[in-house]
Amino acid sequence: MDYTAQLDVAIDRLHEEGRYRTFIDIERQNGQFPHAEWTRPDGSKQDITVWCGNDYLGMGQNPVVLDAMHEAIDATGAGSGGTRNISGTTVYHKKLEAELANLHEKEEALLFTSAYIANDATLSTLPKLFPGLIIYSDATNHASMIEGVRRNGGAKRIFRHNDVAHLRELLAADDPAAPKLIAFESIYSMDGDFGPIEAICDLADEFGALTYIDEVHAVGMYGPRGAGVAERDGLMHRLDIINGTLAKAYGVMGGYIAASAKMCDAIRSYAPGFIFTTSLPPAIAAGAAASVKHLKTAQELRDSQQLQAKILKMRLKGLGLPIIDHGSHIVPVMVGNPVHTKVLSDMLLEEHGIYVQPINFPTVPRGTERLRFTPSPVHGPREMDALVKAMDALWSHCALNRAELTA
Description:
Elements: H1 3-16, E1 26-28, E2 35-39, E3 45-50, H2 63-76, H3 91-104, E4 108-112, H4 115-129, E5 134-138, H5 143-150, E6 155-159, H6 164-173, E7 180-185, E8 187-188, E9 193-194, H7 197-207, E10 209-214, H8 229-232, E11 241-245, E12 255-259, H9 261-270, H10 272-275, H11 282-295, H12 299-318, E13 331-334, H13 338-352, E14 354-355, E15 358-359, E16 370-373, H14 381-397
Parallel strand pairs: 3-14, 5-6, 5-7, 7-10, 10-11
Antiparallel strand pairs: 1-2, 2-3, 4-12, 8-9, 11-12, 13-16, 15-16
Helix pairs in contact: 2-11, 3-11, 4-5, 6-7, 13-14
């Protein structure tokens, strides 16, 4: 086989389908977020505004976080020096896990290098702990959950997205004595819709199933202390395992699960993704702990972010742009064609200094390609005005359809 030619075929296919992805070389400017500097392919520099970042609350530049990281790196150096089992557990890791357990009102929390690894490692390990386990997974769960369920060697059932009736049918069809787990999300990040947490917990109680919820896009953002949608709705006590990230609203890096002490002990003892991975640098753990602690009492940031999202949705709707609005902080604008989506993204960046990455297959189904905006408290009126005017102009320039405006 001509391996190089085969690679060309694979990459050319992506170009032909309009979904070849490129890295945008940007340098975030501390104290100036959402502003950044883009290095163009020709090496020239351009100031841009980032509208697609996951640092939802600007915590990546919050002095509380930066001070904690500076102190930790001065005290301990750069890396952790090992896996958690072999010299890689420090006081910073333990403090962070204690903050997370407290946040979710669970006995313990277990830290991973990312929420992807936390999902994959945990879901792929659970059948080792519960022989014969059947996992019921929402059809639009994140890739990390899908991968963990796929390779765990156990039985799986896929229920239609947020379809509680279909989930009930699947649960009822299986052996009542078999161990079961329902895996789902609180906020699905591409459409910004919410999972039916209470209804799923009711089914779990009825059929004797464990519950596993991914709160990645909700932690820091919802609930009186930022523990997520389950906290907002008073349901955390009904969830057995909560997955979250430190790389979005908390502005740093890492992922975790929060659960009972025995569950965390079993996962850390059996999950290869935990056992064989070098632990996070102490400075990262210190910054994340400071961020989690700070956001437990920073409701004003959550309120400001929600207000910004509502304003952006209202203004884009006023232009007749086809947005999806499920009431969350995520603002998807539907384009429906990968080539058009890429063109819009390129023109926003090159002509208006606005960076929003095109979202296409396999992240979303074909025909549902979109631009996904994530407003934050640090996006001010000037940035909002520039975005809305640019979208209005480019939508007309590309002759894309608008919804009929009503009085």
